[in-house]
Hints:
Helices cover 0% and strands 43% of the residues. By secondary structure, the protein is an all-beta fold. It is globular and about 35 Å long.
Amino acid sequence: MRVNTTGTYTFTSSSTIGDTYGYLYQGNFYPSYPSYNIVTQNDDGAGSGQFQLTATLRSDITYILVFTTYTQQQTGSFSITASGPDYVFFSTQIIQTTTGKK
């Protein structure tokens, strides 16, 4: 995700798939190290189990917005509303992680 103009942006989730979580990363996202590169995170800031993230973003940096749910393997439709001083350019990346027992 990139922004056209440096400034403060807000991202709000909307879905019917349950309790959502949002995480915003600068540069890269490493599932094995979820606190590395984190800008902000939120659980229920928009109410009704939806997240709301607000952060000052720079136009010369790429960001990754991670959308996930409290319950594992929960899927369904969702949308993200972005607001701020200018355009936000989204691209989709699907990051799958697996957990296993030995």
